[in-house]
Specification:
The complex is a heterodimer of chains A (299) and B (549). Chain A is 58% helix and 3% strand. By secondary structure, chain A is mainly α. Chain A has one domain (19-277). The longest helix of chain A is centred in the middle third of the chain and has 22 residues, at 163-184. With 549 residues, chain B is of the alpha/beta class. Chain B contains 13 helices and 24 strands. In chain B, strands 5, 6, 8, 14, 16, 18, 20, 21 and 23 form a 9-stranded mixed sheet that branches. Chain B is elongated, with a radius of gyration of 26 Å. Classes of the chains: A mainly alpha (299), B alpha/beta (549). Chains A and B meet through helix 8 of A and helix 6 and strand 18 of B.
Chain lengths: 299, 549
């Protein structure tokens, strides 16, 4: 899930709709579909508490870190993501997960970028603690739904100008699955069944694509996508644990600063979607400062 | 090993019987004539639980958390025969309480406390089930049904494979991929009665309620159908041939009435040839699946019946085979069973776990519709009803769903289709984590959660083996269907008039529910219910009733 923070860039010349609004909209539709048609076991109190805690944490973080403006958009993206994925019998866990998600943005940082995708971190924390679970099979393999998500997701990432990480992750992931099937002598229906997972699509289009936690340069992002794909499949087919991609991203995220060092690029800014090419910095109406500055940016 | 046996088909996960052993309808018909399915002899007591009312009254049979204090418990002092399947037993009440009830009563404070905690922490609301159990849907309703029980904790797994072979035992064979080479101690022969008990305990069930006199209780019509949601298991030559084929017999044991081999192989063609030469009939197309499993490092567990041992033991039926192993793989290999299979197959999997409910990660796990009110006449055809309901649900999920039939803490049940399994029974199924030598103090909580999944699968819709995960979900679920008897008293009062007026609507609603759930013709349902004969509420329009005095 894409995460920004409570900060807006002082760009008056170019007005573009924030990509996070697309995310909130499309994930909201997904959640509604899940609730109404697939009978997700998510109660209204759980949804209310998730959103409430996420927004409150965002507000508290804004005040604590003295950010110029409270911006709920990123917190909303995290909250709707948690509603889609997180299942628990206990509402206290919902509060904890929302706190960890939003809180981590403010606390776990490296050179003005947060390290972990907030939703991803919260979900892994819940799984490890055994307080909740994720149902990766909850969507079923309905092809049209997958297609719908893919379309909406692609819209989002295109606007966010970071489709490369999504597409390269899917390519590596599918490629490795097909390679495994060929090695095992399995029919191709098996990797196709594995890739039909809507959960995987949501992960690819809405989570790994988070421009705030992915490397700045395109080459770095493609390398990052490769690492996450390999780690995901290692978890799934060597360790035999579910939710491989979530683990893959958690393992890959701390490597982003190193990848940024190896492949320098421009840090992402929500109102100014860019692919991160260094040269593009100089053509922007308002240059985006490189992330080496120590300015207080929680995004 | 009997090396002179004729070719036999092989029993895989999910394909427990060779082709042709069980004709379509064999079990189906048997179930219809079964002694317990319709449970005609089961006593039905007038429920003291105010079905669907805002106030829950309880009797001593109820372990409903809402029935917490003794003040609310009304001893009934009547006998409550409980069916427990074919081996039906009747438990007489002692002073209004069964032994089971006494045990339940001791655990009751724990349950009540859990319920309270769940409320404090905002769990979903627990409510009373009440109602009386009148019947269950047996696994034998379904053709080509296999049953597997899996007890698992910390990657340690005990797999129990039921065997209800009705044919010649000489023709029985089983080939199952296993993650490790199994020692003799890791193989055991189980008791079929325990597995049967587990199936009965978790079976979809039919309960009934009897409406009370509306003149006495006004809140009767107000229903809370969400009441189900609640709070909270060989010779030298032979060896040379084996070597030439690249097949290694890793181990060979005789356990109970079974001869068991653990095979590993260098390549699938050799394994296939070996199996064929040794009398196992492998379906066409299995080669690629064997290849895949071998590449994944799996070994093959192969079992046949040792007729001499069987004769010595004196068993006339085959007992379930159990294997214990430790592996991170929480997978049920179903692919061999789908190869060249004749139509879809049924699989029931019972999971006994410590933490909570089990679900599939690579297929959608769906809860069956539950707590639906259905017409009274279904009581005599509950088997038909449940089978058709299941088929409808399979279609609704595009034949790709795995269905949850039961998820419950092993401490209790309500209503009980059979009593919970004892600690000894659970231990025999592989529940090793209750470190008390199999002895459970009465009233002590059994740390076992049972999940029952039912899947109808074929190669087209289930290309991949079933992969599972254990969740921390301990919320209870059961496939339960409700019969609601109308009040037939002659008393007159405004509430009685209102009650009679809504009866026909209620029947119509039940007819619609039944049609939706089963796909049965609505016209036939109405006919069977004799809805046309039910008096209408004087056929006046709402506005006519509004101003008529």
């Amino acid at each position: 899930m894409e995460q920004g923070n409570g900060e807006t860039q002082p760009n008056k010349t170019v007005k573009r709709l924030d990509p996070r609004l697309y995310q909130i909209f499309s994930l909201g539709i997904l959640l509604t579909y899940g609730l109404l048609w697939l009978h997700f076991e998510v109660s209204i109190p759980q949804i209310a508490i998730t959103f409430g805690t996420a927004l409150l944490t965002q507000y508290a973080g804004t005040r604590l870190y003295k950010l110029p403006k409270f911006d709920p958009r990123s917190a909303l993206v995290s909250a709707v993501g948690l509603c889609i994925f997180l299942r628990t019998n206990d509402l206290v866990v919902v509060v904890l997960a929302s706190l960890i998600a939003i809180g981590s943005k403010f606390v776990i940082r490296w050179k003005s970028k947060h390290i972990f995708n907030p939703t991803n971190l919260a979900l892994i924390a819940v799984i490890v603690s055994g307080l909740g679970w994720i149902s990766p099979g909850q969507w079923g393999q309905i092809a049209w739904l997958g297609f719908l998500i893919a379309c909406m997701g692609s819209l989002v990432v295109t606007r966010a100008a970071r489709a490369d990480v999504t597409l390269s992750f899917l390519a590596f992931y599918l490629g490795l699955l097909v390679a495994r099937a060929l090695w095992l002598g399995d029919p191709l229906t098996i990797p196709l069944h594995q890739i039909e997972s809507v959960t995987l699509l949501i992960f690819s289009f809405f989570m790994i694509s988070d421009p705030k936690t992915t490397p700045n340069a395109r080459a770095g992002r493609i390398f990052f996508a490769f690492l996450v794909a390999v780690a995901s499949l290692f978890v799934q087919f060597v360790l035999w644990r579910p939710n491989g991609p979530l683990w893959g991203l958690i393992v890959g995220a701390p490597l982003v600063p190193l990848i940024d060092y190896l492949f320098p690029g421009v840090r992402y800014n929500w109102p100014e979607p860019s692919s991160g090419k260094l040269t593009s910095v100089f053509s922007l109406p308002v240059p985006v400062p490189l992330s080496l500055s120590q300015s207080r940016r929680i995004s | 090993m009997n090396r002179h046996i004729s070719f036999i088909d092989v029993f895989f996960f999910g394909k427990l019987l060779p082709y042709g052993w069980r004709r379509a309808g064999d079990h189906f018909n048997g179930a219809y004539e079964g002694t317990y399915l319709f449970s005609k002899g089961v006593a039905r007591l007038v429920s003291d639980c105010a079905y669907a009312t805002s106030t829950t009254l309880c009797d001593d049979h109820s372990i409903d958390p809402a029935c917490g204090s003794r003040e609310h418990r009304r001893p009934m002092g009547r006998s409550l025969p409980l069916t427990t399947g074919r081996g039906a037993s009747t438990i007489e009440l002692l002073g209004g309480r069964t032994r089971t009830d006494i045990s339940f009563a001791r655990t009751f404070s724990f349950l009540a406390a859990t319920f309270l905690i769940s409320l404090l922490f905002g769990h979903s609301t627990a409510s009373a089930f009440c109602g009386f159990y009148v019947g269950k849907a047996d696994t034998k309703l379904f053709n080509k049904a296999s049953e597997v029980a899996i007890a698992r904790h910390d990657d340690k797994t005990v797999l129990t494979m039921a065997n209800d072979l009705k044919g010649d035992v000489k023709e029985f064979a089983l080939v199952a991929p296993v993650p490790t080479v199994l020692e003799k101690d890791q193989i055991h022969v189980g008791d079929p009665a325990v597995l049967k008990h587990l199936a009965d305990y978790s079976a979809p069930r039919l309960v009934e309620y009897i409406d009370e006199n509306p003149c006495l209780r006004y809140g009767l019509i107000e229903r809370k159908m969400d009441a189900m949601k609640s709070m909270p298991q060989a010779a030298a030559g032979k060896l040379e041939r084996d070597r030439a084929l690249g097949v290694t017999v890793e181990a060979q044991y005789t356990v109970g009435e079974y001869d068991i081999l653990i095979l590993s192989a260098e390549e699938s063609a050799g394994l296939e040839t070996w199996l064929t030469e040794n009398g196992y009939r492998i379906p066409n197309g299995a080669l690629s699946v064997l290849h895949s499993y071998l590449k994944q490092g799996l070994k093959f567990f192969v079992a046949k019946v040792n007729l001499v041992e069987q004769a010595k033991l004196g068993f006339t039926h085959l007992r379930p085979l159990q294997i214990a192993f430790e592996s991170p793989k929480f997978v049920l290999p179903i692919r061999l069973g789908t190869v060249n299979a004749d139509g879809a197959q049924e699989l029931f999997v019972y999971f006994l776990t410590k933490q909570g409910r089990v679900e599939t990660t690579n297929y959608r796990t769906v809860r069956l519709p539950e707590a639906q009110e259905i017409p009274l006449y279904v009581k005599d055809k509950f088997g038909d009803f449940y089978r058709d309901l299941f088929t409808q649900q399979v279609k609704r999920e595009n034949e790709r769903g795995v269905f949850l039939e039961y998820a419950w803490d092993m401490n209790w049940c309500d209503p009980c289709a059979a009593n919970p399994l004892s600690a000894e029974e659970l231990r025999s199924l592989g529940v090793f984590w209750q470190d008390n030598g199999g002895k459970m103090l009465r009233g002590q909580g059994q740390n076992v959660f049972l999940t029952r999944l039912h899947v109808r699968y074929d190669a087209a819709h289930f290309p991949e083996d079933l992969i599972f995960q254990e969740t921390s979900d301990r919320s209870n679920f059961q496939a339960r269907y409700v019969l609601r008897h109308p009040w037939t008293g002659q008393e007159e009062c405004p509430a009685a008039t209102a009650y009679r007026q809504q009866l026909r609507e209620r029947y119509e609603r039940e007819a619609q529910t039944l049609a939706t759930l089963t796909g049965w013709n609505i016209g036939d349902i109405r006919k069977a219910m004799n809805i046309a004969l039910v008096p209408t509420s004087d056929d006046k329009k709402w506005y006519q009733r509004l101003w008529s005095n």
